[in-house]
Write a structure and sequence with these properties.
Elements (H helix, E strand, L loop, with lengths): L8 H21 L8 H6 L5 H23 L8 E5 L7 H7 L4 E6 L2 H10 L4 E4 L13 E6 L8 H14 E11 L2 H9 L23 E5 L18 E5 L1 H6 L6 E10 L3 E7 L5
Parallel strand pairs: 1-2, 1-4, 2-3, 4-5
Antiparallel strand pairs: 5-9, 6-7, 8-9
The structure holds S-adenosylmethionine.
Length: 280
């Protein structure tokens, strides 16, 4: 995230590349233990070593607290755990360290991030997936599915497709924890307190507050300056903002929405607690 009064993709690209090159040189001399290179950390929005590590730990804390609340005693002995959109394992690496789940799977469209995780984070299966379903899993079901900062970037069509797929991948009685941008995140973008290099600020400022039953999506602007920065993502990938009634009514067609925990992830994204829909 960067603040900018004028949006110049080429200048922004050059500045980011210069900063990345400097940081990569410094880091090559003293790479923090067990962390992916800065380039891969930046793709998940946490380029700094400390923010990557502490953000992953805090997200794991929030997810495990929500899972314990939803599943009770069952949360202490999870069979399968799936991280949808795991990147280079910022959160799933933390689950491995904590011994959460008997078998763990991370999937992501970023094949380079998956290759890094596979080489450096034993204790999970790391699978490259596609922008559209199905997942490369045959008949597997998971007690805990979580997804941090992925549905907050998918448009309505991609969300519906992935909600269908994840609903079919959730074990009976399991829980899916999916993070979204809610009112807090939209307000930060609207006010200009935060900005992204991927969207002109004008696209985010100046609109009214989010209606409770609204989903608002703004696609990222792809150009030759940022090509390759988000490998594998679908055409509609961008910023999405969810009102609570939209989640309950629309997501409720795919999964039972049990709770929405405001700002549960990094004080920034809301966490949607979902269960399988009863048959019928
Ligand atoms: C903001 S990053 C978050 C990564 C990770 N969950 C974390 O918290 O560190 C979003 C991730 O979603 C992945 N992604 C985007 N579209 C996807 C899709 N359709 N299926 C799986 N992963 C996807 C991206 O490659 C990226 O790694």
């Amino acid at each position: 995230m960067t603040g900018a009064s004028q949006w110049r993709p080429a200048a922004g690209w050059a500045r980011r590349r210069a900063l990345q090159a400097g940081a990569a040189l410094t880091e090559a001399r003293r790479r923090p233990d067990g962390l992916p290179p800065r380039r891969l950390r930046a793709r998940v929005g946490a380029p700094g070593a400390q923010e990557f590590a502490s953000g992953g730990a805090a997200a794991a804390d929030a997810l495990l607290a929500a899972a314990a609340e939803a599943l009770g005693e069952r949360s202490a002995a999870l069979a399968g755990v799936l991280d949808f959109g795991c990147g280079s394992g910022r959160v799933l690496g933390e689950m491995i360290r904590r011994g959460v789940g008997e078998h763990r799977v991370g999937v992501d469209v970023d094949a380079e991030a998956i290759a890094w995780a596979e080489a450096h984070l034993p204790g999970a299966r790391w699978l490259a997936s596609s922008a559209n379903p199905p997942l490369p899993l045959v008949g597997e079901r998971f007690d805990l599915i979580y997804s941090v900062s992925v549905f907050s970037h998918l448009d309505a069509v991609a969300q519906d497709a992935w909600l269908t797929e994840l609903a079919g991948t959730l074990a009976p009685g399991g829980v899916a924890l999916l993070s979204v941008h809610g009112a807090t995140a939209l307000e930060a973008f609207r006010s200009g307190a935060v900005a992204t290099a991927w969207c002109p600020p004008e696209a985010l400022r100046g609109r009214g507050p989010l209606a409770a039953d609204e989903l608002w999506s703004v696609p990222y602007v792809h150009s030759r300056w940022n090509r390759g920065d988000l490998p594998g993502v679908g055409a509609g990938y961008g910023l999405s903002f969810h009102g609570p009634e939209y989640l309950r009514a629309h997501w409720g067609r795919f999964l039972a929405v049990e709770a929405i925990l405001p700002r549960a992830i990094s004080g920034w994204q809301d966490l949607v607690v979902c269960r399988s829909r009863p048959p019928g």
